[in-house]
Predict the structure.
Amino acid sequence: MTNQLFAAALGITAPWFVETVDFDAGQRRLTIHVDFVAGSRFAHPKAAGDHKVHDTQVKRLRHLNFFQHECYLEVRVPRVKLPDGKVALVEPDWVGKLAGFTLLFEALVLMLAQQMPFAAVARTIGESWHRVHAVCRRYVDLALAEANLSALSSIAIDETSYRRGHSYLTLVADADARKVVFVSKGRGADNIAGFVQHLRTHNGAADNITAACLDMSPAFIKGVTDHLPKAAITLDRFHVVAHASQAVDQMRRIEQRTDPALKRFALGLAQGQKQTLLRPSPRPRSPRRPVHHQAHRPRLALSRTIARHSRPQTDQHRFRDAGSVVHQRHALQGRAHEAGRHHDPNPFQRHRRLDQIAPDQRLH
């Protein structure tokens, strides 16, 4: 039952089956042994039909973790004899493109590599940096081999630095599909020539490129003019705004040096004027709520004072101070109450717990 459960979870179908499952709690590792039914025949892409098994090899493949434990598949892979007498290896569909991994594990590596550096991916999955790089490089090569650039008409060209800014890469992207189609080292006109050669290799043509968006690099402009004659050059907005801001700042400095009024004004407000010209005005702050002094709230101040002095303390002197404060408070309140009320011949009848019919009722 356990073997069938793992076979269903792995997606293994006939003639493959799960033979045994071994779990090592000390090393936190799960090993699943996969075999094929005896007498099975297998197809091979180099020859039509099903072929008889010649011999077998055992391959160990890293799979997705089983909870927090590493999972490996030990697969007995057959080798078949082709009609021309050659012996070829037959691999199942769930074996990865790189030796030592399953297809699902390589998919996990590619997914993580899109979100973090290779070193972080290696620490996450417990593999070396070189293995992670080999997996990504293998799939990049496969994707480039299958690329079809026949419909490419609009491109965007830019540069980026790597290796701490000492080296540069030129990137060419499909402006419509928003994906990178070409990467090369350097940032000159030769990179545009290399892109045109790459375009021809993948069913594209230089005459199909009708629009090219790039920065104000003279090398890129020369490369597009020489190798993409039908492309209309568009300068990207970021560089245009950056150059305009620099021009405004330079003109501000010139005007301050030549105009005496601006020069006197710049002695105290040059920095503020620069911020006004180069940056938008700050958002207005919401008005603050008025803060009342303690003198305007005597009852709250008295209550806080009493609460501060009436905390339980081990020092008997503080108990006596707190008691004196409480007595003084009650005395002040009693005097204020006596001074503010009128004479009442029956003061006890106003109490809510006394009944007028029962005058001998006691206070509770």
Summary: The CA atoms of residues 110 and 136 lie 6 Å apart. Residues 316-340 form the longest helix (25 residues). The chain is about 40% helix and 25% strand.
